[in-house]
């Protein structure tokens, strides 16, 4: 499946979501690696994972890995897609009707495309089709990790149900679209620096180009604010958490799902000198030089509590770097993680290694060839920690 994510050309993101729309797996079993801890201000055991999402009838059809490995085609500004392509094309996102041309002035570097909106805002990952396909693939990794759930916050506890939802740094919008499908009575807003979301989306889903680090200016408060995989995007997490607090209704929930670098290996099968671990150490170092803390999730619980949130929960998961685990579920995650890393590696590395570490692009490419080989090595039991941190604004 080739996907288009642009204002003029996207249909297949919506199609993917039509396939992906499914019921929340109420009472989903926890990941075998899950280790839930009560953080500062927490209340012990995690909340029930049962969800009261209104749509429980449709089945989830997982994509095939080959859906994400086809030729990369940049269809930005293509006019070849017709409206009739969309399986769920029931509503044109308001975003597409109001954007100024300048947000499409994407920057090209090292053969990759980067965002244009507020070019001074340094986001180091590309926004081209290759990266957008990877983000959709990664969404499936989260689906596997949370066994079909989109969030861990106990939204069924909200006194008036889920009404207004914000997804910060929404990327392709795939989480927001899935959420809007599951909660058709909620209004879901996704914001991003890049206007790369599909045009045809559920009628209760809206996308806006917006810098999450600037002052927020929304019409109404939210009862759920979500951000996923933003650790490479945000420098001042306390400031972001403060804006979340100020823009939530009393009793509302905030949730961040992110990776927590560096890679780990617990059994010595990959030493600190292995290319996989070295890549992650250098990535952390290069990001730090640019003011980005790739270990930021370690502080989320404390920072959320300092801002005033309560019931702070931290859940830890694992993404094996390839199919090395014995457990079938972990093995499947490893399969998707390997593809995720192979697809993403150049995009993750170019900005951070050239700007943060001062490497030449050619040096980066040579190193990445070795790293790719290391990622494939099933004798190395390397994994990436994934943390989900959620908290409630006091009533
Ligand atoms: C790694 S992607 C994750 C996308 C999406 N949350 C997901 O999980 O699929 C990070 C996204 O954050 C966006 N982003 C980075 N800095 C941002 C900012 N200051 N304001 C809004 N979005 C931002 C990027 O454009 C990118 O789409």
TrEMBL record:
Any one Gene Ontology molecular-function term assigned to this protein's record: methyltransferase activity
Compositionally biased spans, kind Low complexity: 74-86
Key word Ribonucleoprotein present: no
GO BP annotations, alphabetical order: methylation
Alphabetical UniProt keywords: Methyltransferase, Transferase
Composition bias, Polar residues: 1-32
Region (Disordered): 1-89
Protein name as catalogued: S-adenosyl-L-methionine-dependent methyltransferase
Organism listed in the record: Rhizodiscina lignyota
